[in-house]
Amino acid sequence: FTKRKLDDEALEELEDLLITSDMGIATASKIVQGIAKSRFGKDISSEELKAALADEIVPILEPVTKPLNVQTGRKPHVVLVCGVNGSGKTTTIGKLAKIYSDQGLKVMLAAGDTFRAAAVEQLKVWGERTNVPVIAKETGADAAALAYDAVVQAQADGCDVLLIDTAGRLQNKAHLMDELEKVVRVIKKVDETAPHDTVLVLDSTVGQNAHSQVETFDKIVNVTGLIVTKLDGTAKGGVTVSLAERFGKPVHAIGVGETAEDLRPFEARSFANALVGLDD
Amino acid sequence: MFESLQSRLGGIFDKLTKRGSLSESDVSEAMREVRVALLEADVALSVVKDFVKKAKEKAIGEEVLKGINPGQMVIKIVHDCMVEMLGSDDTAINLKAVPPVAILMVGLQGAGKTTTSAKIGLMLKKKERKKVLLASLDVYRPAAQQQLEVLAKQAELNSLPIVFGEQPVAIAKRAMVEARKGGYDVVILDTAGRLHIDEKLMDEVAQVRDVANPAETLLVTDAMTGQDSVNVAKEFNDKIGITGIALTRVDGDARGGAALSMKEVTGAPIKVMGVGEKINELEAFHADRVAGRILGM
Lengths: 280, 297
Ligand SMILES: Nc1nc2c(ncn2[C@@H]2O[C@H](COP(=O)(O)OP(=O)(O)OP(=O)(O)O)[C@@H](O)[C@H]2O)c(=O)[nH]1
Ligand SMILES: Nc1nc2c(ncn2[C@@H]2O[C@H](COP(=O)(O)OP(=O)(O)OP(=O)(O)O)[C@@H](O)[C@H]2O)c(=O)[nH]1
Ligand SMILES: [K+]
Ligand SMILES: [Mg+2]
Ligand SMILES: [Mg+2]
What we know:
The complex is a heterodimer of chains A (280) and B (297). Chain A has 280 residues and is α/β, with parallel strands linked by helices.
């Protein structure tokens, strides 16, 4: 590797790299300043620089690295999955169903998207693929009532985990957010400790709007963790880093494709390496 | 979280007392704030750099108009520049071809292709009195074909009957044949979501294009998209050729900088905007509205 001096121009290039990952300017410049402090003026190769960048990012991500574990005593452990339209909620539920069934857990799915065309059918296909029962009503049914029925059914069947799908909704739509809040309220009527996890699914191609998504969903339904999807593309999901700084919400897993096997645990080091373009 | 451009620039120009034309140093300082505002709005960095350069050249030496302050003057120049770059004269859906005219819908997973297919179909039926056939070529996503079928019913449009196991290129051929037989004016081909780097699926959609010879190939893009928009737009345009952009989820609170990025990278006009989940929630593209939003005004 050819070395070059870490001057202002090199630092600007580093900041550009982080900005194009969707990290946001504030976090990007903070990280670059961290590097400048210890290494300004030194000769350094581009690989070393990337490694240094990753080293700055890892400590931000490590505290939020936390798998989505099912507590088997709860029968069921209720996971509510929410997010904006098209982020990957239904697919992620299919992937989680596969992981949990492979662990030998008894899984149930609830088709809580009673709004979008063929959303129920979509989840049913995932139920078939993973060999897991799906509680569903017809499109147009009340989502909260469906969730209520599903928790009751999962209790009766002695399920370990119930994964509840919800319709995609944009966080600035108050009536849709109220509806989601109602789903939570109604679930609590059956089990006041539920939902035990409320997962917000974020599309990694999203830009700075992710901040507004986390902020608003958290305010309405108390988000307990994030799953970031579509990292098999060229988007780096850099906003995850500034979200970790600002909200400190656990990041459970990442989606890397469209099949049932394409969910991976979130790992701070490999995420940071991919973000700066280092091979693992 | 985001400061409006007005308040950012206000701070800079409050320091100025003298009037007259905008000096290079004033403009340079202002453009640093414009850069930040555009990045916060998710305009891709490369596009931000070009934009700032262009706007700067326009602004230096401009006389500050009577009745407004220098900050407002810069905003006006930046806004005009943005409207010019976003806008285009041909935002109508192009149907100038021998019927049945094909419209090919492409884009990343979950962008809004299926919904927008139904929306455009409904719009063409209502506003242009066109006879429209909807066809789903998505054999991958669970229940994707059913989704379009349901939406077609809602819009009171016909959809191509689903043949289980038939592959996308064959479906496209059948759609064109059926459309000819049925005397349709327009065939909207909804395709599966795909990554721009998925060579196999990009080849497949290129084959579909060759079969259908579409008058429009619309890249459907989420208004919330971040910096990756330029990669996506460039690859789709290079590999299949984009004639227009459909921007979705404009009903959200994202600033929508991806619109500018994609327009710049492809040169293709933004033609329609999705402003809700319902099939009648489609609007014509308004450059001034989107420009104001990107700038946080
Ligand atoms: N490449 C890739 N595609 C994904 C991933 N996760 C989901 N998808 C695709 O993204 C699209 C949308 O996924 P869904 O699971 O339907 O998203 P959703 O959030 O349930 O959507 P709505 O219910 O309509 O709001 C589908 O085409 C999925 O196959 C991923 O990790 N990688
Ligand atoms: N709020 C809002 N939601 C939209 C808009 N357009 C589409 N959606 C929603 O976005 C989600 C995904 O839309 P689809 O039409 O299924 O997207 P797609 O591109 O066909 O998805 P794939 O086929 O999986 O790649 C659904 O929940 C739609 O209801 C829009 O303009 N506004
Ligand atoms: K990636
Ligand atoms: Mg869904
Ligand atoms: Mg679709």
